[in-house]
Each structure stands twice: as structure tokens, then as C-alpha cells.
Amino acid sequence: MTSDQPIGTLTAPPPPAAAPAPDRRSLAPDLARGMLLLFIALANVWGYLWSTGDSDAVGARPAGGSDVDHLVDGLTAFFVDDRSRPMFAILYGFGLATMASRLAARGAERKGVRRVLARRSWWLLAFGLVHSALLFGGDILAPYGVTGLIALAFLHRSRVTLWIWFAAGTVLSTAAGLAVLLLFEDGLALGGEPAQGYVASMGERLMSSGFTVVLAVALLFFVPQVVLGILLARAGWLTRPWDHRRRLGQVAVVAVVVNVFANLPWALAVGHLWEPTDRLGGVLEIVHIASGVVMGLGYVCLFGWLAAVWHDRRDHPAVRAVTAVGERSLTSYLLQSVMFAPLLSAWGLGLGGRIGTAQAALLAIGVWLTTVAVAVALDRAGRRGPFEVLLRRLTYGRRMAYTATPTSPAPAASPAPAPVG
Q1: Among 80, 88, 191, 370, which lies 20 to 30 A Cα-Cα from 112?
Q2: Where is this region: Disordered (predicted)?
Q3: Which three-class secondary structure state does DSSP give residue 304?
């Protein structure tokens, strides 16, 4: 959809615009969300752990880990840390563009499209703040909600304009991120004993979430990836992956090569196979984060490539199970916190102070498998995830006055649920 395309006309009397129907879903985004929710579990779980020892080492893992813990730390740093969030930011941009395209095809004018997506973003922000207060200070929904509001300015821009903003946003966010790392390195390190009481811990979680939201707004952390997701949606790489199979594979291979050269030194340091100086460690962390954006795109393209290969196997039990999670990514993400927080937090059973990262990784896999079981059960019952239903109702709760004058058929993919990461 380009900036000069007609979108719709306003008529009277205007009937209400219904939420886009879930016709067919693209396999690639749901496959990616389903698998990356495992990555999110592995990345988030060690944030619940705490240590009374020196935790200022590279990667800020709890002190006193075993050799197995160090191995798990290194693998997580190489494959997961700061990779899943960019990947889901890209998918978030894809979801926004897909929703905008479908609403336009049903006759909605640009103001109406922006109003719907703005309402959805505000509710996502609210979901994130409640999630932070109740369970997890590392919530990503609130920053995504704020980023979604910013991204409304890009939805109807030309392709050239989007690429310019992507480049400018990447430079600005990288420079700002570098400044944050240099100025607040000590403040961002893993702390010691967390608050023991639940009420006191709520304040800590809200402060952590608020800090992340401020960074997302002020530093445009996720905007470049969201813009990239909008570009991918327009190009059809995820809705028609079989038409772009070669390019998807090429991008995935390039991303893996970049990850090996740019991220391996950091991962080896996190795994305690070598110990860089403080200054070199800071440089490696910056390279680690920057290469995470490349690998996030690589993961998107990898799952797009797999979707092109498996497009006739979407009913295979394993593929169906993973995509069931992807279709209910918001519910699955929140369900992870429902299980993690009471088990690991100091106000709960306090396992976060007694287990290492290897045991935590096993717990994360078990939690993800539980969300798979829940998603499969809902899928077999023909039901959406409860939080997807709630967000959908809140988004489309008001009547909008637009009638259909579609300029092109609706895309095959249904609106993506709120991606997380």
C-alpha cells in the first residue's frame, strides 16, 4: 500500500466496521512466534535469578555457576539474548501493516485505520503495565505499545521514505544505546537480593518497566525493526514465502555468518571461556546487541523459508502445535509469567535464589511446553487465546463509520496477535 493509494470513502448512513475476520493465517509469522516464545522463556528466566556474590561479570549472570551453567549461559547469549526482541519487533511491524491493509481493504479511511491501531497500541501499553506490576518487570508489551503509537506515522509512507527512516532510526538508536551503556552500565547490572514482599516488589517491577518504556520512546529502540516489519509485509515475504524462498534463505545464511563473527566472542566471554577487560567487554556488548538486530531478521527469514518448505505440511502435529502457540502468542507470553513469577520470585517460592541457569533453562523449556499443551488444547477446541479475545474486543469495541470501497483483495494473513519478546 503506497502513499497515493485511495483507501476508502465515507458515506451515510455509515455501518459499523467489524473486526477483520480470521480467514487464513500465514504460516511463517505463527511458526516464528511459536518457536521464538521458547527463546523468550530462555532469555527471561535468568532475569528471575539473583545472587549474593559478584554478579558484575560479562552477561551479568548470577555468580557461582557450575561449568554446566556457564555452558548454558554461553549458548543462550549466542542464540537468544537480544535476538528474540528484535525478531518480534519485526513481526510486530508486520502485524501492524497487515491489520492496516485489511482494514483498508474493508473500506476504512486512513484516519480510521490509525484510530483502530492507536487504540490497540494504548491497550497493549495498559496490558504491559499491569503485567509489570503483577508479575514481571522485564515486560515488553508496554514498550511495544508505545512503539506502535510511534509507528503509526510510518504506515502510509512510501517505500523510499521507510528505508530512510529505517537507516536514520538505526543510527540514532545505536548511538543512544551506546550512550546508555556507557552512562548506566553499573546501574543496569544484575542486583543482589530482591524485595521479599509482593507489594514492595511491585514498585521495583514498575520502575523497571517504566525505565524500559522511556528508553523505547526516547531512543527509538524498536522503531527501525518495526519499520523493517512494515517493509516485509509490503514485499509479501511472509505471506507468500514460496515466492521469496531463495532470498529468505540467503538473508538467513548471512545473518548466521554475522552472528558467528560478531557475537561469538561475547558468548564465549559469557560462558567464562575467556575474560575480556572492562572496556573490551563494553565494546563486545555493543556489537552483541547490534548483531542481534541482524540475527532477529535472520530468524524471521529462517522461519519464512521453513514455511515455504512446509507450506503443504501445516497440519503436521508438530507444525500445528508450534503455530497454535504462535496464534496465541500474547496468551502464551503472559502464561509464562504466571508460572515463572510464583516459582522463582523472592515473594513466592524463591527458587530464583537457589537454582543455577542450567536448571532455570530446563524450567523454561518445561514452561514453554506447558504453553504448547494449552495452545493445542485451545486449538482443538476451536478457541482463540483469552487475551487475544480480550485485546480484540477492546480494539474493535467502538463502532467506526466506514463502508467498504476496497481497492484490492484482502491479504491471506489474518491480523497478527500482539507479538512479544
Answers
A1: 88
A2: 1-24
A3: helix
Q: What residues have CB less than 8 Å from 352, skipping those under 6 apart?
A: 48, 49, 50, 194, 344, 345, 346, 360
- What DSSP assignment string belongs to 92-151? HHHHHHHHHHHHHHTT--HHHHHHHHHHHHHHHHHHHHHHHHHT-TT--HHHHHHHHHHH
Q: Mean pLDDT across the stretch 378-389?
A: 95
pLDDT tens column, 201-210 = 777 777 777 7
Question: What is the rounded CA–CA span in Å between residue 227 and residue 224?
Answer: 5
Domain positions in the chain: 27-395
Contact 88, 419 (CB under 8 A): yes
Spatial neighbors of 319 by CB under 8 A, at least 6 apart, are 27, 31, 310, 313
Cell triple for 417: 496477535
Condensed to tens digits (0 to 9), the pLDDT of residues 352-376 reads 888 999 999 999 999 999 999 999 9
Q: Among residues 356, 369, 394, which one has the least CA distance to residue 19?
A: 394
- For residue 210, what is its C-alpha cell? 517504566
Q: Give the residue among 83, 87, 1 at the shortest CA–CA distance from 42.
A: 83
Closest CA to 206 of 145, 148, 135: 135
Compute the chain's Rg from CA coordinates. 21
- CA gap 98, 284 in Å, rounded: 36
Identity of the amino acid at 126: A
**Predicted confidence (pLDDT) per residue in 134-160, tens digit:** 988 888 898 888 888 888 888 888 889
Q: What percentage of the chain has pLDDT greater than the value 70?
A: 80
What would the grid cell of residue 16 be?
A: 459499523
The burial of 327, by beta-carbon neighbours within 10 Å (0-12 exposed, 13-18 middle, 19 or more buried), is given as: buried
Cell of 287: 556489537
Average pLDDT over residues 186-192: 47
Query: Between 317-327 and 27-45, two packed helices, what is the crossing angle to 10 degrees?
Result: 70
**Could you tell me which residue, 15 or 246, shows the higher pLDDT?**
246
Model confidence band, residue 391 (pLDDT cutoffs 50, 70, 90): very high
Global pTM?
0.83
Q: Is the dihedral of CA 392, 393, 395, 400 positive or negative?
A: positive
DSSP 17: P
Q: 237: closest CA among 304, 141, 295?
A: 304
Q: Is the pLDDT of residue 191 over 60?
A: no
Q: Which grid cell is 337?
A: 509469567
Beta-bridge mates of residue 401 = 16
C-alpha grid cell, residue 352: 530464583
